[in-house]
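Re: [help] complex structure
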Amino acid sequence: MNIGEAAARSGLPPKTIRYYEEIGLVNPARDTNGYRAFRESDVHKLSFLERARALGFTIGDCRALLSLWEDDSRASADVKAIAREHLAEIDAKISSLRQMRKTLDDLIGKCAGDDRPECPIIERFAHGAEPVTETR
Amino acid sequence: MNIGEAAARSGLPPKTIRYYEEIGLVNPARDTNGYRAFRESDVHKLSFLERARALGFTIGDCRALLSLWEDDSRASADVKAIAREHLAEIDAKISSLRQMRKTLDDLIGKCAGDDRPECPIIERFAHGAEPVTETR
DNA sequence: CTTGACCTTCCAGTTACTGGAAACCCTAGG
DNA sequence: CCTAGGGTTTCCAGTAACTGGAAGGTCAAG
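Output below.
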């Protein structure tokens, strides 16, 4: 099958599939005309990548996960370890975003949002402030 | 003052300050020896940038915020609009991360994490699954 | 035989820096 | 006066993971 169909079936854009080939994640055969010829196994792999990426795993993680997938003698502990590390990163991102969100929301609430120039948001950037955490 | 001191006072690495100059966010004077000569106003601007970036505003947003800061006849509504849009993006990211987190956490909970190959995480990537949202 | 949809490669751009190399400048110590 | 160090300069390259676009080859339909 051509790249268009592989794209439709894996959920990845053709551009991305070409990129994945370039970095060695997939290795489709070639027709005599030079077109990539995807087998079922290639599509399966691409779908695997699509799902792992959708959960936020990096390409590096995906590479490791793929090789574990193909390793019949893998230990699920190895997979779990990768997933745990990723979960920790997600948690870190969420908490950083939540802190931002809190501060920002607070500032937005204090800003009149009218045609006058006074603005606590700009003030904050201009002069800094103690963390919002100062509850009493 | 030289870039080192400007860096110490603004909280930004020298590299970043040079980058900000390159993209036109700051424009420090130069000494006869070619060294950048930062005035108080430059440091103030750099600190502004550091704080806005810490809240996750893009460089583009920062550019807009800076020019509003310098505009005495600004309307706080314009600042607020930028902040609101950014807040919406943060919310979108948080909810996307939360969805990932939930799915991932669920899978991790189901994985034995021992030396056997069976692994719900890998299975999920290999065969997909309905969203976890299917409560009942 | 032409048209339009696909496909190919290659180059560039995105975001916001960061690392490193080669070389210049300045100051303090000997 | 020389040197050693630390700070500074510019420039080039790399990061993550694609994405857009140009120029051109291929294929099936009409």
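The helical segments of chain B are 3-10, 14-22, 40-54, 59-69, 76-110, 120-127.
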